[in-house]
Amino acid sequence: MKVFTGKITEEFTFELIHNPFDEEGKIKWFSIFLMDEDKHVISAEHYGSEFAAECLTEEDIKYIRSVIPKDFLFHVYNCTRG
Known about the structure:
Layout: H1 10-18, E1 31-36, E2 39-45, E3 50-54, H2 58-67, E4 73-77
């Protein structure tokens, strides 16, 4: 398994938004974890078929559920920031 870490740059953001799929139509990465320091903000796992996030508003949750396929798993966790 390869693990890449680094800052979220404009180049990374462009790749993630505009070129995320492989030749089979799956997300290129098995898992993506977006973090703020040591806290997970959102993750996409199993080639994008499972999402998890914390500290979302009801509006955020409604929007995300509206754009992901109905058979994808979406977990929302309570905000644990102190």
